[in-house]
Specification:
Helices cover 78% and strands 0% of the residues. The chain is an all-alpha fold.
């Protein structure tokens, strides 16, 4: 990526308040050529896509064009400086650091009383936001000032005891926080490697983390950050087991802890957004739809609620998680038309946040859209969307989605009767699954029967009956349900056997499930 691309993306990522601040900052801190930098800034900001040729033509008579690369680089640096200055008004870290530095300057000037007063304010702020690393710096400077400022030796002795207790306590909190953070990283690394546990061996790897002494009691987490990490780890553990009731309970506690501490929430928007995402996932799987809609609204209100603080990354996470889950909601409720109606809005978001989205989230969104089109009978549109995933062959945390997408791709080609192409697609998919170590029993069965189906008459009823019987036997085994559930494979087979559109088959199955549930409640 060139400096031109970097500069364009940086300018486009700025909020309106940051743009105004930059222009003010540039006028105050640039001794010369201020107007040139602001003019170049405005010209780039006005473009929807970067067009350097248009910029050069626009400023053809300006002297700075002769050293355009230098000018662009300097503008980039000025913008970064203005953002650092701007952050001091919004960031708790910056405000604390500013007060500590001011206290240090006053101390150097021999103004001990004023320095100490300023440190007290910084300390209060650091405790409110749980900035324990900064508290150590404050305590060290506070102790240094106390030694010089106080003349009472007895008071010094008592203060030393209090200082020692406070200092040791904070060191223990920091140690505890980083130990929890390491366990959180371990759990997340496993999740991105395996996602849903498909074997006892994979589940055992997660259990090793859960059995760590630090994770046996929430009271062992000594700070909000550590408590947040504690619940994140358990949420991940329950998610890989697809135990959504326990995931729900865990994330409810996590969200409540964050919301009960407004200062922490304000300074930790990303962990808060992630906790709401986990809660949404559990509410969706448990079909707590009233709660789901309320949580979705809460998440999407965050950019307005924290307009002056929220970052592009945080906005991107809200986009990818909320739309991912809303599309899943429409799919689960068989509201395929409503889900498809959302696609243009989702597509605009994919373009807006390109480069800021997690690969796994982006591919999952593409996969859900592919399914919406496929199960509503729009097979060509489904192929168009799923092809965007199949072309992705890099090693990534999205391996499960990549594998499911390739299986869906085969089903789409079968529906389109692209039998000549299917021979290649089946071989290619098998190689891909072997490479990714994802050729489980269900996947193997799907490929085997699809190979038989393309060599038999189209929609061969007896072959589909055998396919269903063998699949049901496999699905009775632990860890073998994920791919079938992701693809709604039984419903697809039933639609072939009944010669009925798949949505009708899914609606009938849903009604039967509700009836059985009502019967259980009545009994």
């Amino acid at each position: 990526m060139t400096i031109s691309d970097d500069l364009f993306q940086l300018i486009k990522s700025l909020k309106q308040t940051e743009k105004r601040y930059f222009k003010l900052y540039a006028s105050l801190h640039s001794k010369r050529n201020t107007n040139n930098y602001v003019k170049l800034f405005n010209a780039i900001d006005s473009q929807k896509t970067y067009n350097e040729k248009a910029i050069l033509q626009k400023f053809n008579n300006e002297a700075f064009i002769k050293q355009f690369s230098v000018t662009k680089n300097y503008l980039y640096q000025i913008i970064l400086k203005s953002l650092r200055a701007y952050s001091t008004t919004n960031s708790a870290d910056a405000r604390i650091n500013e007060q500590v530095e001011s206290a240090r300057i006053l101390y150097g000037k021999g103004l001990y009383k004023k320095s100490f007063q300023l440190l007290k304010k910084a300390k209060k702020l650091a405790y409110a936001y749980q900035k324990h690393e900064q508290l150590l710096i404050i305590l060290n400077l506070e102790r240094e000032i106390t030694r010089r400022y106080s003349v009472d030796n007895k008071a010094n002795t008592n203060e030393n005891k209090g200082f020692r207790y406070e200092y040791v306590n904070i060191v223990n909190i920091i140690k505890n926080k980083y130990e929890m953070q390491l366990l959180t990283h371990d759990a997340f690394d496993l999740y991105y490697n395996y996602m849903i546990a498909r074997s006892k061996e994979e589940l055992e790897i997660y259990k090793k983390i859960i059995n760590e002494p630090l994770l046996q009691d929430i009271n062992k987490a000594l700070s909000l950050k550590a408590k947040d990490g504690f619940y994140k780890i358990y949420s991940t553990y329950y998610a890989v087991q697809e135990n959504y009731k326990k995931l729900y309970d865990s994330t409810i506690f996590q969200v409540q802890i964050i919301e009960a501490n407004p200062a922490y929430k304000e300074d930790n928007l990303l962990p808060y957004i992630v906790s709401l995402n986990n809660l949404l996932e559990a509410q969706l799987k448990l079909e707590y739809y009233t709660e789901f809609q309320a949580t979705l609204k809460k998440m999407r209100n965050i950019p307005q609620q924290f307009a002056n603080k929220i970052t592009t990354t945080e906005k991107a996470v809200i986009f990818e998680t909320s739309y991912q889950l809303e599309l899943n909601y429409y799919f689960n409720e068989l509201l395929f038309a409503e889900g498809i109606a959302l696609v243009p809005e989702v597509n605009a978001g994919l373009e807006q946040f390109e480069g800021a989205l997690l690969t796994v989230s982006k591919l999952d969104i593409l996969f859900i859209i592919s399914k919406l089109y496929f199960y509503s009978g729009h097979h060509k549109e489904a192929l168009n969307w799923v092809s965007k995933i199949v072309l992705e062959d890099k090693s990534s945390p999205a391996d499960d989605i990549l594998c499911f997408a390739r299986l869906l791709n085969i089903l789409i080609h079968y529906e389109l009767q692209n039998f000549d192409l299917l021979h290649y697609e089946i071989k290619s998919t098998r190689r891909f699954l072997v490479k990714k170590k994802r050729l489980y029993k269900v996947e193997n069965l799907i490929l085997r029967y699809l190979r038989k189906l393309i060599n038999a008459p189209y929609n061969d009823k007896k072959l589909f009956q055998k396919f269903k019987a063998d699949l049901l036997l496999l699905l009775a085994q632990p860890f073998e349900q994920s791919s079938s559930a992701y693809l709604n494979l039984i419903h697809w087979i039933n639609s072939k056997l009944q010669k009925t559109p798949i949505r009708k088959v899914m609606l009938a199955a849903k009604k039967q499930k509700v009836a059985e549930l009502n019967q259980t409640i009545t009994n």
